[in-house]
Amino acid sequence: MTQLVLFSLPVIAGLFIESKDKDLSSNTKHILQTMSFYSILFFLAVNASFDFSKPLSKGYLITDKAISTEEKMDSDGYSEITNYQFKTIPKEKMNPVPFWKQISAAEHADIYPKADRYNPSKVFLNIQNKKYEILARKFKIIRDKNNDGYLRLYYLKEYTKPDVINVSRKTYNQFGKGDYLDIETYSGLFGLEWTYNHWKHNH
């Protein structure tokens, strides 16, 4: 609600100023419209500067970095934009505990290992919509009058899909794989949430 009121004020002010067309000079109207726009920036600055609330903090590990480009078209024609990106995972999911999983070949014929298309040396298993990296494997033959097949034993580690965040070129050059990002979220003096990023080198 606060956000709606905040960003509606300049529009309302602009309409009010236009309605006073006969009473105000064009220079005065321009000044008032500019002031109404900068009132948003002032409001946001006060919202953050005088916010003494305790932030919610969440830490991330940078697992990789990449540069991508994309083309955009505007009134001036095509332009190329460079995106600087970090791949991150939450700290609490950095070191998942590996475990052995027994899978019957007869009962789970649809579950089978798949190599990563970008890193063929890593092989994964999908079980109930979750992805696991295979660290080791064993096979056990089963032979009796009611069953004839084999069991597959996999030593698995849960895989967490990284989140991709865009950063500035300066931040991209200063930090990289193995470094950390802590994102602090504040409630804001007027209820407008804002965040602060702490970048940390892995020493």
- Estimated helix fraction: 10-25%
Shape: elongated
Largest sheet: 5 strands, antiparallel
The arrangement of helices and strands along the chain is HHEEEEEEEEHEE
Strand order of the largest sheet: 8-2-1-9-10
Separation, N- and C-terminal Cα atoms: 44 Å
Structural class: alpha+beta
How much strand content do the residues show?
A: 35-45%
Low-confidence stretches: none
Number of strands: 10
Radius of gyration: 28 Å
Describe the structure.
The protein has 203 residues and is an alpha+beta fold. Helices cover 24% and strands 44% of the residues. It has three helices and ten strands. The protein has helices spanning 2-19, 26-49, 169-174, and strands spanning 56-74, 77-90, 99-104, 114-115, 123-127, 130-143, 148-158, 163-167, 180-186, 194-200. The strands form two sheets. The protein has a five-stranded antiparallel beta sheet.
